[in-house]
Amino acid sequence: MIGSFNKRIQDSLAERRSRRTRLVTKDGRCNIEYGNVKYSNHFAFLADFWTTFVEIRWRFVLFFFIASFTLSWFIFGLLWYWIARSNGDLTWQNPPVDHTPCIDNVVGLTTAFLYSLETQTTIGYGGRALTPFCPGAVALIIIQSLLGAIINCFMCGIILSKISLPKKRAKTITFSDMAVISPKNGSLSLSIRVANLRKTLMIGSQIYGKLLRTTITPDGETIIMDQVNIDFMVDAGKDNLFFICPLTLYHIIDKSSPFFEMAVDTLHKQEFELVVFLDGTAESTSSSCQVRTSFIPQEIMWGYNFLPIISRSKEGKYRVDFSNFSKVVPVATAHCAYCFHNIKGHHHHSKDGNDNQGFEVIDINESPNVTKM
Predict the structure, then answer these.
(1) Which end of the chain is less packed: N or C, by CB atoms within 10 Å?
(2) pTM
Protein backbone atom coordinates (compact mmCIF):
# COMPACT_ATOMS: atom_id res chain seq x y z
CA MET A 1 0.00 0.00 0.00
CA ILE A 2 2.71 2.46 1.03
CA GLY A 3 4.94 1.33 -1.83
CA SER A 4 2.25 1.97 -4.45
CA PHE A 5 1.52 5.39 -2.92
CA ASN A 6 5.21 6.34 -3.09
CA LYS A 7 5.34 5.16 -6.70
CA ARG A 8 2.40 7.40 -7.58
CA ILE A 9 4.14 10.38 -5.98
CA GLN A 10 7.35 9.65 -7.89
CA ASP A 11 5.44 9.30 -11.17
CA SER A 12 3.62 12.58 -10.52
CA LEU A 13 6.88 14.39 -9.78
CA ALA A 14 8.51 12.91 -12.87
CA GLU A 15 5.56 14.08 -14.98
CA ARG A 16 5.83 17.60 -13.58
CA ARG A 17 9.57 17.69 -14.32
CA SER A 18 8.96 16.57 -17.89
CA ARG A 19 6.35 19.32 -18.34
CA ARG A 20 8.76 21.95 -17.08
CA THR A 21 11.54 20.80 -19.41
CA ARG A 22 9.34 20.72 -22.51
CA LEU A 23 9.43 23.59 -24.94
CA VAL A 24 6.12 22.48 -26.49
CA THR A 25 3.50 20.69 -24.41
CA LYS A 26 1.51 17.75 -25.72
CA ASP A 27 -1.43 20.03 -26.55
CA GLY A 28 0.77 22.46 -28.51
CA ARG A 29 1.36 25.29 -26.03
CA CYS A 30 4.85 26.79 -25.88
CA ASN A 31 6.54 26.65 -22.49
CA ILE A 32 8.61 29.81 -22.68
CA GLU A 33 8.71 33.16 -20.89
CA TYR A 34 10.35 36.48 -21.71
CA GLY A 35 12.38 38.51 -19.25
CA ASN A 36 14.04 41.93 -19.14
CA VAL A 37 11.76 43.33 -21.83
CA LYS A 38 12.12 47.10 -22.09
CA TYR A 39 9.17 49.03 -20.74
CA SER A 40 8.83 50.99 -24.00
CA ASN A 41 8.22 47.75 -25.91
CA HIS A 42 4.98 47.21 -24.01
CA PHE A 43 3.45 50.08 -25.98
CA ALA A 44 3.81 47.94 -29.12
CA PHE A 45 0.98 45.77 -27.76
CA LEU A 46 -1.24 48.87 -27.53
CA ALA A 47 -0.34 49.89 -31.08
CA ASP A 48 -1.48 46.44 -32.24
CA PHE A 49 -4.53 46.58 -29.98
CA TRP A 50 -6.71 44.38 -32.21
CA THR A 51 -4.37 41.38 -31.95
CA THR A 52 -3.94 42.07 -28.24
CA PHE A 53 -7.70 41.94 -27.64
CA VAL A 54 -8.10 38.78 -29.75
CA GLU A 55 -5.32 36.94 -27.89
CA ILE A 56 -6.24 37.85 -24.30
CA ARG A 57 -8.21 35.43 -22.16
CA TRP A 58 -11.99 35.21 -22.30
CA ARG A 59 -12.37 36.52 -18.76
CA PHE A 60 -10.72 39.81 -19.76
CA VAL A 61 -12.77 40.04 -22.97
CA LEU A 62 -16.00 39.67 -20.98
CA PHE A 63 -14.76 42.24 -18.48
CA PHE A 64 -13.99 44.79 -21.23
CA PHE A 65 -17.32 43.98 -22.91
CA ILE A 66 -19.31 44.75 -19.76
CA ALA A 67 -17.13 47.69 -18.72
CA SER A 68 -17.19 49.42 -22.14
CA PHE A 69 -20.98 49.46 -22.38
CA THR A 70 -21.66 50.25 -18.71
CA LEU A 71 -19.07 53.01 -18.59
CA SER A 72 -20.31 54.63 -21.80
CA TRP A 73 -23.90 54.54 -20.54
CA PHE A 74 -22.86 56.16 -17.25
CA ILE A 75 -20.68 58.86 -18.84
CA PHE A 76 -23.38 59.89 -21.29
CA GLY A 77 -25.90 59.69 -18.45
CA LEU A 78 -23.86 62.34 -16.63
CA LEU A 79 -23.85 64.49 -19.77
CA TRP A 80 -27.63 64.17 -20.13
CA TYR A 81 -27.98 65.04 -16.46
CA TRP A 82 -25.81 68.13 -17.01
CA ILE A 83 -27.95 69.22 -19.99
CA ALA A 84 -31.16 68.75 -18.00
CA ARG A 85 -29.68 70.62 -15.03
CA SER A 86 -28.52 73.49 -17.25
CA ASN A 87 -32.03 73.81 -18.67
CA GLY A 88 -33.70 73.62 -15.25
CA ASP A 89 -35.51 70.34 -15.95
CA LEU A 90 -34.72 68.55 -12.66
CA THR A 91 -37.33 68.06 -9.96
CA TRP A 92 -35.39 69.83 -7.22
CA GLN A 93 -35.12 72.91 -9.49
CA ASN A 94 -38.93 73.30 -9.37
CA PRO A 95 -39.52 74.11 -13.06
CA PRO A 96 -42.70 76.14 -13.83
CA VAL A 97 -45.77 74.54 -15.32
CA ASP A 98 -45.16 76.02 -18.78
CA HIS A 99 -41.47 74.99 -18.76
CA THR A 100 -40.14 73.33 -21.96
CA PRO A 101 -37.62 70.59 -21.09
CA CYS A 102 -34.73 69.38 -23.28
CA ILE A 103 -35.62 65.73 -22.54
CA ASP A 104 -39.07 64.71 -21.41
CA ASN A 105 -39.24 62.82 -18.09
CA VAL A 106 -35.53 63.22 -17.26
CA VAL A 107 -35.83 64.62 -13.76
CA GLY A 108 -32.77 63.14 -11.96
CA LEU A 109 -29.56 61.16 -12.30
CA THR A 110 -31.33 57.80 -12.42
CA THR A 111 -33.67 58.85 -15.23
CA ALA A 112 -30.72 60.43 -17.08
CA PHE A 113 -28.84 57.08 -16.90
CA LEU A 114 -31.93 55.21 -18.12
CA TYR A 115 -32.31 57.65 -21.02
CA SER A 116 -28.63 57.15 -21.94
CA LEU A 117 -29.06 53.34 -21.91
CA GLU A 118 -32.26 53.51 -24.00
CA THR A 119 -30.62 55.85 -26.52
CA GLN A 120 -27.44 53.81 -27.05
CA THR A 121 -29.23 50.46 -27.21
CA THR A 122 -32.10 51.89 -29.35
CA ILE A 123 -34.70 50.51 -26.96
CA GLY A 124 -37.03 53.53 -27.01
CA TYR A 125 -39.71 52.76 -24.40
CA GLY A 126 -41.45 56.05 -25.20
CA GLY A 127 -41.47 57.49 -21.68
CA ARG A 128 -38.38 59.65 -22.22
CA ALA A 129 -37.78 61.52 -25.46
CA LEU A 130 -35.64 64.35 -26.81
CA THR A 131 -37.31 67.65 -27.68
CA PRO A 132 -36.09 69.86 -30.57
CA PHE A 133 -35.52 72.94 -28.41
CA CYS A 134 -31.94 72.23 -27.25
CA PRO A 135 -29.27 72.14 -30.01
CA GLY A 136 -26.67 70.78 -27.57
CA ALA A 137 -28.88 67.80 -26.78
CA VAL A 138 -29.34 67.07 -30.50
CA ALA A 139 -25.57 67.08 -31.02
CA LEU A 140 -25.05 64.83 -27.98
CA ILE A 141 -27.53 62.19 -29.16
CA ILE A 142 -25.74 62.05 -32.54
CA ILE A 143 -22.37 61.57 -30.82
CA GLN A 144 -23.70 58.86 -28.51
CA SER A 145 -25.37 56.97 -31.38
CA LEU A 146 -22.15 56.96 -33.41
CA LEU A 147 -19.97 55.96 -30.46
CA GLY A 148 -22.41 53.22 -29.45
CA ALA A 149 -22.30 51.78 -32.99
CA ILE A 150 -18.48 51.76 -32.89
CA ILE A 151 -18.43 49.95 -29.53
CA ASN A 152 -20.96 47.39 -30.81
CA CYS A 153 -18.94 46.67 -33.95
CA PHE A 154 -15.63 46.43 -32.10
CA MET A 155 -16.81 44.13 -29.32
CA CYS A 156 -18.81 41.89 -31.67
CA GLY A 157 -15.79 41.64 -33.95
CA ILE A 158 -13.55 40.66 -31.03
CA ILE A 159 -15.95 37.93 -29.87
CA LEU A 160 -16.46 36.53 -33.37
CA SER A 161 -12.71 36.53 -34.01
CA LYS A 162 -12.01 34.66 -30.78
CA ILE A 163 -14.73 32.11 -31.51
CA SER A 164 -13.38 31.47 -35.02
CA LEU A 165 -9.69 31.29 -34.11
CA PRO A 166 -7.92 28.58 -36.18
CA LYS A 167 -6.41 27.06 -33.03
CA LYS A 168 -9.92 25.97 -32.02
CA ARG A 169 -10.02 23.84 -35.17
CA ALA A 170 -6.69 22.37 -34.10
CA LYS A 171 -8.35 20.94 -30.98
CA THR A 172 -10.05 18.33 -33.18
CA ILE A 173 -6.72 17.06 -34.55
CA THR A 174 -4.93 14.67 -32.23
CA PHE A 175 -1.55 12.95 -32.21
CA SER A 176 -0.62 9.66 -30.63
CA ASP A 177 0.77 9.92 -27.12
CA MET A 178 3.84 7.92 -28.08
CA ALA A 179 6.10 7.55 -31.10
CA VAL A 180 7.43 4.16 -32.15
CA ILE A 181 10.55 2.92 -33.95
CA SER A 182 10.20 -0.18 -36.12
CA PRO A 183 11.00 -1.47 -39.64
CA LYS A 184 8.84 -0.12 -42.46
CA ASN A 185 9.24 -0.80 -46.18
CA GLY A 186 12.77 -2.07 -45.75
CA SER A 187 13.93 0.86 -43.61
CA LEU A 188 14.07 1.62 -39.92
CA SER A 189 11.51 4.34 -39.25
CA LEU A 190 10.21 6.51 -36.44
CA SER A 191 6.42 6.64 -36.71
CA ILE A 192 3.69 8.73 -35.16
CA ARG A 193 -0.05 8.66 -35.68
CA VAL A 194 -2.33 11.64 -36.29
CA ALA A 195 -6.11 11.78 -36.68
CA ASN A 196 -8.66 14.35 -37.78
CA LEU A 197 -11.72 13.96 -35.56
CA ARG A 198 -13.97 15.92 -37.94
CA LYS A 199 -15.25 14.65 -41.26
CA THR A 200 -14.37 17.93 -42.96
CA LEU A 201 -10.95 17.78 -44.60
CA MET A 202 -7.79 19.74 -43.94
CA ILE A 203 -6.74 21.05 -47.35
CA GLY A 204 -3.07 21.26 -48.32
CA SER A 205 -1.86 19.54 -45.16
CA GLN A 206 1.90 19.42 -44.61
CA ILE A 207 3.81 17.61 -41.89
CA TYR A 208 7.31 18.34 -40.63
CA GLY A 209 9.32 18.17 -37.44
CA LYS A 210 12.12 19.86 -35.50
CA LEU A 211 14.55 18.10 -33.18
CA LEU A 212 15.53 20.44 -30.35
CA ARG A 213 18.67 19.68 -28.37
CA THR A 214 21.66 21.34 -26.75
CA THR A 215 24.82 21.13 -28.87
CA ILE A 216 28.38 22.39 -28.59
CA THR A 217 30.00 23.77 -31.73
CA PRO A 218 33.66 23.07 -32.66
CA ASP A 219 34.42 26.60 -31.45
CA GLY A 220 33.15 25.72 -27.97
CA GLU A 221 29.89 27.67 -28.25
CA THR A 222 26.91 26.08 -26.50
CA ILE A 223 23.64 26.29 -28.41
CA ILE A 224 20.79 25.71 -25.98
CA MET A 225 18.07 25.23 -28.57
CA ASP A 226 19.70 23.80 -31.67
CA GLN A 227 17.07 22.89 -34.28
CA VAL A 228 17.45 20.01 -36.71
CA ASN A 229 14.93 19.41 -39.48
CA ILE A 230 13.08 16.09 -39.34
CA ASP A 231 11.26 15.02 -42.49
CA PHE A 232 8.02 13.07 -42.11
CA MET A 233 6.05 11.41 -44.87
CA VAL A 234 3.35 8.90 -45.64
CA ASP A 235 3.33 6.34 -48.41
CA ALA A 236 1.92 8.92 -50.84
CA GLY A 237 4.50 11.62 -50.00
CA LYS A 238 4.82 14.41 -47.48
CA ASP A 239 2.85 17.27 -49.10
CA ASN A 240 -0.90 17.68 -49.67
CA LEU A 241 -1.96 14.81 -47.46
CA PHE A 242 -5.38 13.24 -48.04
CA PHE A 243 -6.37 13.70 -44.42
CA ILE A 244 -9.72 11.93 -44.42
CA CYS A 245 -8.72 9.19 -41.96
CA PRO A 246 -5.97 8.72 -39.35
CA LEU A 247 -2.51 8.65 -40.88
CA THR A 248 0.72 7.05 -39.73
CA LEU A 249 3.59 9.43 -40.43
CA TYR A 250 7.12 8.09 -40.48
CA HIS A 251 10.66 9.42 -40.56
CA ILE A 252 13.28 7.19 -42.17
CA ILE A 253 16.28 6.67 -39.88
CA ASP A 254 19.24 6.70 -42.27
CA LYS A 255 22.77 8.05 -41.98
CA SER A 256 21.52 11.64 -42.33
CA SER A 257 19.01 11.24 -39.49
CA PRO A 258 19.93 12.43 -35.96
CA PHE A 259 18.44 9.17 -34.64
CA PHE A 260 21.01 7.07 -36.53
CA GLU A 261 23.54 7.10 -33.66
CA MET A 262 20.93 6.12 -31.06
CA ALA A 263 20.11 2.61 -29.86
CA VAL A 264 17.46 0.92 -27.80
CA ASP A 265 19.58 1.08 -24.62
CA THR A 266 20.71 4.69 -25.12
CA LEU A 267 17.55 6.33 -26.47
CA HIS A 268 15.98 7.15 -23.10
CA LYS A 269 19.28 8.56 -21.85
CA GLN A 270 19.32 11.21 -24.55
CA GLU A 271 18.22 14.81 -23.99
CA PHE A 272 16.18 16.13 -26.86
CA GLU A 273 12.64 17.08 -27.82
CA LEU A 274 10.98 16.14 -31.09
CA VAL A 275 8.41 18.79 -32.06
CA VAL A 276 5.98 17.79 -34.82
CA PHE A 277 3.97 20.33 -36.82
CA LEU A 278 0.93 19.86 -39.03
CA ASP A 279 -0.11 22.82 -41.19
CA GLY A 280 -3.32 22.92 -43.18
CA THR A 281 -6.39 24.89 -44.22
CA ALA A 282 -9.82 24.08 -42.80
CA GLU A 283 -12.24 23.17 -45.57
CA SER A 284 -15.30 24.71 -43.89
CA THR A 285 -13.79 28.08 -42.88
CA SER A 286 -10.79 28.43 -45.27
CA SER A 287 -8.65 29.46 -42.30
CA SER A 288 -5.10 28.24 -41.92
CA CYS A 289 -4.15 26.49 -38.70
CA GLN A 290 -1.15 24.72 -37.22
CA VAL A 291 -1.21 21.78 -34.83
CA ARG A 292 1.82 21.06 -32.64
CA THR A 293 2.91 18.36 -30.27
CA SER A 294 6.20 17.07 -28.90
CA PHE A 295 7.88 13.85 -27.89
CA ILE A 296 10.67 13.44 -25.37
CA PRO A 297 12.93 10.33 -25.33
CA GLN A 298 10.75 8.61 -22.70
CA GLU A 299 7.80 8.86 -25.13
CA ILE A 300 9.53 7.03 -27.99
CA MET A 301 9.12 3.24 -27.90
CA TRP A 302 11.81 1.24 -29.69
CA GLY A 303 10.68 -2.04 -31.22
CA TYR A 304 6.95 -1.37 -31.35
CA ASN A 305 4.41 -0.66 -34.06
CA PHE A 306 0.89 0.76 -34.05
CA LEU A 307 -2.08 -1.55 -34.25
CA PRO A 308 -4.28 -1.20 -37.36
CA ILE A 309 -7.37 0.92 -36.84
CA ILE A 310 -8.93 1.06 -40.34
CA SER A 311 -11.08 -1.79 -41.63
CA ARG A 312 -13.82 -2.33 -44.17
CA SER A 313 -17.17 -3.82 -43.35
CA LYS A 314 -19.07 -6.33 -45.42
CA GLU A 315 -21.29 -3.49 -46.68
CA GLY A 316 -18.23 -1.81 -48.18
CA LYS A 317 -17.97 1.03 -45.65
CA TYR A 318 -14.66 2.01 -44.13
CA ARG A 319 -14.52 2.05 -40.36
CA VAL A 320 -12.02 3.72 -38.02
CA ASP A 321 -11.64 2.08 -34.61
CA PHE A 322 -10.21 4.73 -32.29
CA SER A 323 -9.89 2.24 -29.44
CA ASN A 324 -6.64 1.11 -31.10
CA PHE A 325 -5.40 4.61 -31.86
CA SER A 326 -3.05 4.63 -28.86
CA LYS A 327 -2.14 0.95 -28.77
CA VAL A 328 1.08 -0.65 -29.95
CA VAL A 329 2.40 -4.16 -30.36
CA PRO A 330 6.05 -5.34 -30.19
CA VAL A 331 7.70 -6.21 -33.51
CA ALA A 332 11.10 -7.58 -34.50
CA THR A 333 13.44 -4.58 -34.57
CA ALA A 334 17.21 -4.15 -34.62
CA HIS A 335 18.91 -2.74 -31.53
CA CYS A 336 20.21 0.27 -33.45
CA ALA A 337 20.10 1.77 -36.93
CA TYR A 338 23.66 0.61 -37.64
CA CYS A 339 22.68 -2.94 -36.68
CA PHE A 340 19.63 -2.74 -38.94
CA HIS A 341 21.69 -1.79 -42.01
CA ASN A 342 24.78 -3.92 -41.36
CA ILE A 343 23.98 -6.85 -39.02
CA LYS A 344 21.21 -9.17 -40.11
CA GLY A 345 19.09 -10.86 -37.50
CA HIS A 346 20.14 -8.53 -34.65
CA HIS A 347 16.63 -7.95 -33.32
CA HIS A 348 15.26 -6.42 -30.16
CA HIS A 349 11.98 -8.38 -30.31
CA SER A 350 11.04 -11.69 -31.89
CA LYS A 351 7.26 -11.40 -31.88
CA ASP A 352 5.59 -10.00 -34.97
CA GLY A 353 2.66 -7.63 -35.05
CA ASN A 354 -0.43 -7.87 -37.26
CA ASP A 355 -0.59 -5.94 -40.51
CA ASN A 356 -3.78 -4.47 -41.88
CA GLN A 357 -4.01 -6.30 -45.20
CA GLY A 358 -5.63 -4.04 -47.72
CA PHE A 359 -8.03 -2.37 -45.29
CA GLU A 360 -10.01 -5.59 -45.00
CA VAL A 361 -11.55 -6.91 -41.79
CA ILE A 362 -8.94 -9.14 -40.13
CA ASP A 363 -9.74 -12.04 -37.86
CA ILE A 364 -7.01 -12.35 -35.22
CA ASN A 365 -7.16 -15.75 -33.61
CA GLU A 366 -4.40 -15.16 -31.09
CA SER A 367 -4.55 -12.03 -28.96
CA PRO A 368 -1.29 -10.09 -29.42
CA ASN A 369 0.70 -8.65 -26.56
CA VAL A 370 -0.79 -5.18 -26.69
CA THR A 371 0.71 -2.24 -24.88
CA LYS A 372 -1.49 0.82 -24.30
CA MET A 373 0.18 4.21 -24.46
Answers:
(1) N
(2) 0.70
